[in-house]
Amino acid sequence: xxxxxxxxxxxxxxxxxxxxxxxxxxxxxxxxxxxxxxxxxxxxxxxxxxxxxxxxxxxxxxxxxxxxxxxxxxxxxxxxxxxxxxxxxxxxxxxxxxxxxxxxxxxxxxxxxxxxxxxxxxxxxxxxxxxxxxxxxxxxxxxxxxxxxxxxxxxxxxxxxxxxxxxxxxxxxxxxxxxxxxxxxxxxxxxxxxxxxxxxxxxxxxxxxxxxxxxxxxxxxxxxxxxxxxxxxxxxxxxxxxxxxxxxxxxxxxxxxxxxxxxxxxxxxxxxxxxxxxxxxxxxxxx
Length: 287
Ligand SMILES: N[C@@H](CCC(=O)N[C@@H](CS)C(=O)NCC(=O)O)C(=O)O
Description:
It is built from 14 helices and six strands. The longest helix has 24 residues, at 180-203. The chain has helices spanning 29-41, 60-63, 84-94, 106-118, 120-132, 141-149, 162-176, 180-203, 214-228, 233-236, 238-248, 251-257, 261-276, 281-285; strands at residues 20-24, 46-49, 73-76, 79-82, 154-155, 158-159. The protein is an alpha+beta fold. Strands 2-1-3-4 form a four-stranded mixed sheet, with helices on one face. It has a two-stranded antiparallel ribbon with strand order 5-6. 36% of the residues are buried. Bound molecules: glutathione (GSH).
């Protein structure tokens, strides 16, 4: 569990926040995952939006809460938790019903969630290449300077290197964009992962068996994001497609991932230009 210690937290006001508070962003995949979990649990929570497109996560106030500069963050009765999967596993213990982690499978699920989290930068690469597709560098240099300079730099009291990995990711993106080569490598990793999920779904309606679990939530978010980018699920992983459609029909899921009409229009234009250039996700990945 990634729970921050006192020395990690520079924005001291959060220590007085009572109840369940979530710092998040509408379009962030990890925030969507947490919000769906909260919906399914029926947990009441207070929302604090952090605008990633305006780089609010690189400013001192937010870095004073999460030294890694990432959303989502949970503040529960003044205690700060980071890392979406850890937050979810923590909340499952505090709010056990309805159960979303099958009893006796906690360790197995934690390992499967780690695999999902390990692919997060691959998801980001494909998202920025095929879904968001900003005209310039996604994160301006001045903002990255602020990111580097602020926050405690420690997590759990120990020097933390996650921020450096993030900064390196954005600096490389500014320099070379999200290249065909990197997009292909990321897409290949997802192909392997979704093949395995397709096999699981051959046995059961949900990824951990007969009932919905946090693994379904976590992978649904990835699958949905990649389907927006043109990943050919129906052709490559038909069971994942059926499973995804079933989950997306549920309001607890649908309302968290709905894209604003203006963003949908932008995405359609992006997709058209990728088709015209022969540079769809399918073509670049060689699927
Ligand atoms: N491992 C982290 C990943 C969190 C993460 O990367 N969040 C993204 C949004 S999905 C973020 O905050 N990105 C910062 C940015 O885009 O500047 C978690 O699961 O919470």
